[in-house]
Specification:
Length: about 450
């Protein structure tokens, strides 16, 4: 059943009690915060106690640490995370009782329509950072926005928030077309790259999905003029589009770009033909200039000043798992990053290289067999950038094991690489080999961050 077929504009009419299956996830937590702030009774279930479930209890949410049909109580609507299977006893009971049940991304679409101004940030790379930057901007400007972010934002100490203003900032993910469930008032398209092709089949189909997302935008689209795939889509639209970029003339352009310390950039903001202000970034990497430009474009459009944009850029220190400093191991700095696609890996590793450490040690956990196989040569090429690359086994996630593609095959093509059989083994190797002056960075969108924690555990 498609989203359009299943959309019910009256889904929330009269609903007083919503039950969340998988309430401990970072994706469900902001939705719980928002619905709870609107006076709904919220209950939920998950399999273990976490910081999120504890925070939900503090809010007044009833949280169960097991899945049982009895937990539904008098719920009138059930929301379940993507990790929940059809055989889950609560989901089965809801369907048997005729209680409407929707997947988390569908509910996010309904939430996006609760606010008069929804800003939906899309793109293969940079979504979390840009969503965090825009949220930081609006928060510091006193707009009190709601937010749903794919990483933890230190400023709000969470993955989102229930604001009292008219704005909501949403990370709009292209995976399995989930962003097509949103209704953006303003949308951002940062870039379109060859990811999730196991789902889409071709870059053409992926671009078509972004076109449909852009066409759903109610007022204005902000697009990266330097990204060819993005502009291929924009040129086909009969919609209002404003552009941002570095290399090409955009409505918002970074000029006089300078590296004010290794890996960190500043630039003058040119709006149309006039330089209007100066932006200095507190997060490293040239790629973050694009994210900052998107933030400036959106926030200038909604009436905020260049000075407010500059303040937000300076105060944005990053989101969780985005070049996040974990601590030290043997005097080496340990950083974790979510990068998992070759383009993201290249940007992150080049940033790390520019920071002037003696050696760069990358510990990478490949994610999904299909992506690793499809982009094999790109992974090999980019993983030659570090001085030493440590490879863990591929994390298959939603995919069945594919013995035709392994980390060993990657390692065989990367000179001097180290192959380990577990996260613990990766951490042990770093503990035995890292030296003062090294930069160690764990990379991947799975659970590789656990290795970082193991590395620094004895140095806390």
């Amino acid at each position: 059943m498609s989203f359009i077929d299943s959309y019910n504009p009256h889904l929330l009419d009269g609903v007083q009690h919503v039950h969340f299956i998988g309430c401990g996830g970072s994706g469900t937590y902001p939705l719980i915060q928002i619905l709870h702030s609107r006076g709904l009774t919220i209950s939920g279930s998950d399999v273990e106690e976490t910081k999120i479930t504890k925070a939900e209890r503090t809010m007044g949410v009833t949280v169960y640490l097991e899945h049982d049909a009895a937990h539904l109580g008098d719920a009138q609507l059930v929301v379940y995370s993507a990790a929940i299977h059809d055989e889950n006893p609560e989901l089965k009971a809801a369907r048997a009782r005729g209680i409407p049940a929707v997947e988390r991304s569908v509910m996010l679409g309904y939430v996006s329509r609760m606010y008069s101004h929804s800003v939906c940030v899309s793109g293969t790379h940079g979504k979390t950072t840009t969503t965090g930057m825009i949220t930081t901007m609006l928060e510091l400007a006193g707009k009190d926005p709601a937010a749903v972010i794919g990483g933890k934002l230190p400023l709000i100490d969470g993955y989102g928030k229930a604001g009292k203003g008219d704005d909501i900032v949403i990370e709009a993910c292209e995976f399995a077309e989930t962003f097509l469930k949103l209704t953006p008032y303003l949308s951002v398209v940062l870039n379109i790259d060859n990811d999730h092709l196991d789902y889409y089949g071709s870059i053409g189909e992926l671009k078509f999905a972004f076109k449909r997302f852009a066409l759903m935008t109610q007022f204005m689209i902000f697009a990266n003029v330097d990204d060819k795939n993005t502009m291929d889509v924009m040129y086909t639209l009969d919609r209002r589009v404003r552009t941002f970029g570095i290399e090409n003339d955009g409505d918002y352009q970074a000029v006089n770009v300078q590296e004010y310390k290794p890996g960190f950039f500043e630039f003058d903001l040119k709006e149309w033909s006039k330089i209007t202000g100066h932006i200095r970034l507190s997060v490293p990497g040239r790629h973050n200039i694009y994210n900052a430009l998107a933030m400036c474009a959106v926030c200038r459009f909604v009436g905020l000043t260049v000075e407010q944009c500059a303040e937000a850029a300076l105060n944005f220190k990053g989101a969780g798992r985005r070049f996040e400093v974990y601590g030290e191991c043997n005097g080496a700095l340990v950083i974790d990053d979510y990068a998992h696609h070759p383009t993201e890996l290249r940007a992150t590793l080049n940033t790390a290289k520019e920071m002037g450490y003696k050696r760069l040690i990358a510990v990478h956990q490949p994610f999904t067999y299909s992506r690793t196989k499809m982009l094999f040569n790109d992974f090999v090429d980019v993983l030659k950038i570090p001085d030493i690359t440590v490879l863990t086994p591929i994390m298959g996630s939603r995919e069945p094991n594919d013995p035709t593609i392994t980390s060993a095959k990657l390692a065989a093509q990367i000179p001097g690489s180290v192959l380990v059989d577990s996260l613990q083994a990766a951490a042990d190797w770093v503990k035995q080999n890292a030296q003062p002056g090294d930069l160690v960075i764990t990379l991947g969108c799975g659970d590789i961050y656990k290795a970082s924690k193991m590395m620094v555990a004895d140095n806390q």
